[in-house]
């Protein structure tokens, strides 16, 4: 199978991480994959905050239900939407989704694991992240070397999903 298609198929949400730190080059490559996502009118409305210091990771973990996941991840990326850069609520959100999926695929391709946490528009977390006035939290993505091999969450067959006209 083609390498990209294999990566899409094999990626799983990883929710437990080894304590090993993630190399800066890998974090940069992951952010770069996010940067290259498509966006409406190429507005690129995503902004990233890399939470990697022990103190901030601990504080962030206190603010989410997924305390173990965020607490154990050596890095958590926060994706913010810059409302000034964007132009349309729905299309901005679509672009952010594309950005997040690029990030998850890059994570997997680099031998790391991650999980999309749909924690959005949380004032306390935005304050911790130092979000600017025009920036809104869209999601958190804890990243690290996997400490688990997640089982496959099955998908509906195409026959249930597709209509041809
Ligand atoms: C919009 C969105 C929000 C999600 N939020 C959470 C979350 O808050 N906590 C969590 O453990 N997983 C979350 N996930 C991960 C999904 O549970 C996971 O992708 C799904 O069960 C399929 O499993 P897989 O990613 O291993 O294939 C989220 C995924 C998406 C796309």
If you had to describe this structure to a student in words, what would you say it looks like?
With 165 residues, the protein is α+β, with helices and mostly antiparallel strands. 41% of the residues lie in helices and 16% in strands. It is built from seven helices and four strands. The protein has helices spanning 3-10, 24-35, 54-62, 67-72, 89-109, 123-129, 158-161, and strands spanning 46-51, 75-82, 113-114, 135-144. Helix 2 packs antiparallel against helix 5 (89-109). The mean pLDDT is 97. It binds flavin mononucleotide. Flavin mononucleotide is lined by residues 12-13, 15, 66, 115-118, 150, 153.
Summarize the structure.
This protein has 165 residues and is α+β, with helices and mostly antiparallel strands. It has seven helices and four strands. It binds flavin mononucleotide.
Fold topology:
Elements: H1 3-10, H2 24-35, E1 46-51, H3 54-62, H4 67-72, E2 75-82, H5 89-109, E3 113-114, H6 123-129, E4 135-144, H7 158-161
Antiparallel strand pairs: 1-2, 2-4, 3-4
Helix pairs in contact: 2-5
Structural key phrases:
single chain, 165 residues, alpha+beta, 7 helices, 41% helix, 16% strand, globular, binds flavin mononucleotide
- Described by its quaternary structure, the protein is single chain
Distinct bound molecules: flavin mononucleotide
Rg for CA atoms: 16 Å
Mean pLDDT: 97
The figure for the number of domains is 1
Q: Within the CATH hierarchy, at the fold level, what is the topology? A: NADH Oxidase
Largest sheet, if any?
A: 4 strands, antiparallel
Spatial ordering of strands, largest sheet: 1-2-4-3
- Tell how many strands the DSSP assignment holds: 4
Please name the CATH architecture.
3-Layer(aba) Sandwich
Element order: H for helix, E for strand = HHEHHEHEHEH
CATH superfamily: NADH Oxidase
| Uncertain regions spanning at least 5 consecutive residues | none
Strand proportion:
15-25%
Coarse morphology:
globular
Q: What is the CA–CA distance across the termini?
A: 29 Å
Helix fraction bin: 40-55%
Count of DSSP H/I helices = 7
């Amino acid at each position: 199978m083609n390498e990209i298609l294999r990566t899409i198929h094999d990626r799983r949400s990883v929710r437990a991480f080894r304590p090993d730190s993630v190399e800066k080059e890998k974090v940069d490559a992951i952010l770069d994959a996010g940067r290259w996502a498509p966006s409406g009118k190429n507005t690129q409305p995503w902004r990233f905050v890399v939470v990697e210091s022990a103190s901030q990771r601990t504080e962030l973990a206190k603010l989410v239900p997924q305390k173990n996941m965020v607490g154990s991840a050596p890095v958590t990326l926060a994706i913010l939407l810059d409302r000034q850069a964007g132009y349309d609520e729905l299309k901005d959100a679509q672009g952010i989704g594309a950005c997040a999926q690029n990030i998850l695929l890059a994570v997997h391709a680099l031998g790391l694991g991650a999980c999309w946490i749909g924690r959005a528009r949380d004032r306390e977390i935005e304050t911790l992240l130092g979000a600017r006035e025009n920036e809104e939290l869209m999601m958190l993505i804890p990243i690290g070397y996997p400490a688990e091999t997640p089982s496959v969450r099955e998908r509906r067959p195409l026959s249930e999903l597709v209509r041809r006209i």
